[in-house]
Amino acid sequence: MSKISNALNMYFLLMSRPIMSGDELARELEVSKRMINDYKQDLEMAGIYIGSKPGVGGGYYLEKGINLSQIHLNEEEKDALRIVKTQMEASNQAYATAFETLASKILSITEQETFQYLSKTTTKPMEDRLREEKLFVSIRKAVNEQIVIEIEYLSVGPIKRELTKRIIEPYNTFTYKKSLYLAAYCTEKKDFRYFKLSRINSLRLTEEKFKRESGFSLEEMMVEGFGIYREEAINVKLKIRYPSSVFVEENIFVENQTITTLDDGILFEARMKGSTEIETWILSMGENVTVLEPMELKLRLRDRIRKALVNI
After folding, report:
1. Of the four listed, 57, 183, 237, 285, which is most buried by Cβ atoms within 10 Å?
2. How far is Cα of residue 183 from the mean position of the Cα atoms in its chain?
3. CA gap 109, 106 in Å, rounded
4. Could you tell me the CA-to-CA distances from 258 to 135, 181, 245, 266 in Å, in that order?
5. % of the chain exceeding 70 in pLDDT
6. Does residue 70 contact residue 115 with C-beta atoms inside 8 Å?
7. pTM value surpassing 0.85
8. CATH for 234-311 (1.10.3470, 3.30.70, 2.60.220, 2.160.20)
9. Third-level CATH fold of 126-221
């Protein structure tokens, strides 16, 4: 099947389900996982934005507020769509009827285009939302055209916020806890980093292009991640008692986790990244959890509790 057919079939799959992993989409479309990101970029260039949710249970989903009037096709693209539409009309493939309907709508839209900000519902001031909207448009252009960008970024340091300049190669955008993030290769750190759009103070598209790393996968980057923090993985062992044990048993936090049933609760073991969010998660269980390993994690939690008691 042609690339445009697969891209639109991906759109229909995401219309029918709230979220799908890259593996699920690749299996349904009978293509490699790498092609899913290509289809995502093609759809976004046409004005159909696909969100990405990292971690276990994450995947791709249709952003809200899609407006087909945003799509602008040149004559060659319209001809290609007409040809595929004709082929689909003569086939018995899944989504054929839905494809014909969408193709007809796209071909009948006007040339007038508007941009609708695709972030989640937010209480941010309008000025901040408009600023993020402009950043998002520039970033998506850089992602799709593989343009190196220079940013001024407000990092959260150990004592205070620090404004730093970064030269980065943008790979993908995704949503985490209702905020937009950019996954990019940082030339200074020589590693992939996540940048929150609201902390990007300024952005400039350079004249330089970069070659996208073959086989890049946002999902694989976060396979052991508890949240989005980029840190070394640690082996966590917890004894969790009722009622917290019930909620933990019902969820998958990382794919490698194991749970052993005990007389008075469960034994939770996993290799995880993201110490800040791991600590917050453990503290939320209060007296219902005992940290068995690692000792460094236990000591950090004791220190956080001690400091919190001083401030109460």
Report:
1. 183
2. 8
3. 6
4. 41, 30, 13, 10
5. 72
6. yes
7. no
8. 3.30.70
9. SH3 type barrels. (2.30.30)
